[in-house]
Amino acid sequence: MAHEEPRGERRRPRWLRTLTAVVAVLAAVGLLFRAGLVPGVPDLFGEETHDRTGPALLESLRDISRYDAASGTFQVVVDLEKDAKFLPDAVRGTRTLYVGVGTVDAYVDLGELGEERVTVNEERTEATLVLPHARLGDPALDADRSYAVAKERGLLDRLGDLFSGNPGDERAVQRLAVDHIGEAAQESELTARAEANTTSMLRSLLSSLGFERVTVRYDDR
Asked: What's the longest Cα–Cα distance across the chain?
């Protein structure tokens, strides 16, 4: 009867031993390059970044007649927690603490400044303009200045991240941050400042054209 070697003592094939040795050598060389222990030789295993983004496509064109008269920067701390009804937070649930920084512009639409809203006396020394009240633009979140302070995730949520194409998605807290920034802008004096700046700009402009008295009123009629 032929003697059979124990499974643990079988010799690996020669090609497998050679491949293993080559991989080990390459790994050691790579570590030497990264550690800078091989002077004068470029890092063959270094990481390079290539921007292969295609050209931007023009989707639409539109004329803008609004005067952006003021801009405000706001910061909000969003504390978003999601719980499962019948499971403890350690098993299922998330909580994210997020600092959102964004800007909101206040503008006056000069496109509505028609002939019926402008009155000039015969001597062309006095002018009265009636403009619509200032409005707020859409909040713009500053991605470079916004960040997550802390994230707590239950076991099931962490396991789900392993199979997700976008683990730790922050879109929910970002949307909340944008909403709160918009609310803060509405409660601020941003539109009042925009109207004051617009009035100053128009008075300066018309004064340079020879008008001695310029009156600017705001009315959403």
From this structure: 126
Residues near 140 by Cβ (< 8 Å), separated by ≥ 6? 102, 103, 104
- What's residue 219's pLDDT? 87
CA–CA separation, 66 vs 210, rounded Å? Answer: 24
Please answer whether residues 65 and 109 qualify as being in contact, where contact means their C-beta atoms are separated by less than 8 angstroms: yes
CA gyration radius, the chain: 33
Q: Residue 79: what residue type? A: D
Nearest to 211 by CA among 129, 97, 133, 149: 129
pTM (two decimals):
0.61
User: In angstroms, what CA-CA distances link 42 with 22, 31, 50, 68, 123?
Assistant: 20, 13, 18, 52, 79
The Cα 14–Cα 20 span in angstroms is 10
